[in-house]
Amino acid sequence: MTQPAVPFYILCGSLGAGKTTLLMRLLEHWKRRGIRAGVLMNEAGEISIDGPRAGTMAEQVMNLAGGCVCCDTKEDLSWGIAQLVREYKSELIVLECSGLADPAEVVDGVTDLYTARLARLERIIALLQPITNDQSPSSTFVTEQAIRYADELILNKRDLYVPGHWEQFKASIVARNAHARVWETTHARIDAAALFSGHASLSREEPTNVEFGRSRPPSRLRAGYHPMATTVRLPGTLNRDRFLTWAKTLPKEIERAKGFLRFTQEPELQEFQYAPPGEPAVLPVMLLDEPENAIVLIGRGYDVDRYCAELSACVETIGDNTR
Questions:
Q1: CATH architecture assignment, domain 6-195
Q2: Which of 22, 80, 212, 273 could form a disulfide with 188 if both were Cys (CB 3.0 to 4.6 A apart)?
Q3: Residue 196 has pLDDT above 80, yes or no
Q4: DSSP character for 118?
Q5: Which residue from 31, 10, 26, 42 is spatially nearest to 189, judged by alpha carbons?
Q6: Do residues 13 and 19 make contact, with C-beta atoms less than 8 angstroms apart?
Q7: Residues near 163 by beta carbon (within 8 Å), at least 6 away in sequence
Q8: Structural domain boundaries of the chain?
Q9: pTM (2 d.p.)
Q10: How far is the C-alpha of 158 from the C-alpha of 145, rounded, in Å?
Q11: Which CATH superfamily is 223-312 part of?
Q12: Per residue in 64-96, pLDDT tens?
């Protein structure tokens, strides 16, 4: 019997904001509840400094040192997840990104359809502090990405700033991500039980793919939702022309799309890739272990129902041989 995928949490944010302190608090929360938490530590240096600290609370810590998890050690991410789930029986996994890691690339890595068999992206937590003007361009970019991708925005080190400056900082963060919950902390002290509760308070009229705690109408396609990644499983073969037409209509809010599929009356497994500003690409591929046929959409603010329904219309039904 196939085991369900374990929850996967991404902890990201600006350099020096207190991510390891927060990680220790989260690990303590899970340990008190008897949950076997596995940790992936990504540090830019060749030697892990924070890993031994996390090892005092976690069931197992694996270090992805020597590079940034979004590029240099991206392949190690999938390997680390597999080790934690299969060898150490982790019941959840948390990845602490280095302050140089782009969360967008991490989301891309963990939503790989092979990796998704083992872990499902559950929550992206960004820890931030008021940012000085002397950040490098790369650090500024990564911080901006953490803000955009976060489900939970934790604003830390409030005790170090006067109220007026703090409110300006908070307002600037909220303006860049109106979907996430905002927490204000000192020394990364947070109610972990509340942090991991659902977003029941979110109620928006506009189409959105923030789906915590919300039921959805039944659909012929089963979809797994996360605010930044929607996985749409395909129950059958697709009509080639309809699918290629659909792929060309993807909106600018979708920053990445990928997956595996089969076309009706064509024997080859197909790989689908889309990364703007490039054109969608569908090419035959030969794999020893065929993944589940599914499409993953990564982005925020697009109409999920619309694009799932249109993708559903690409699935061939019995007796449907139209091209």
A1: 3-Layer(aba) Sandwich (3.40)
A2: 22
A3: yes
A4: T
A5: 26
A6: yes
A7: none
A8: 6-195, 223-312
A9: 0.78
A10: 22
A11: CobW-like, C-terminal domain (3.30.1220.10)
A12: 654 444 444 557 888 899 999 999 999 999 999
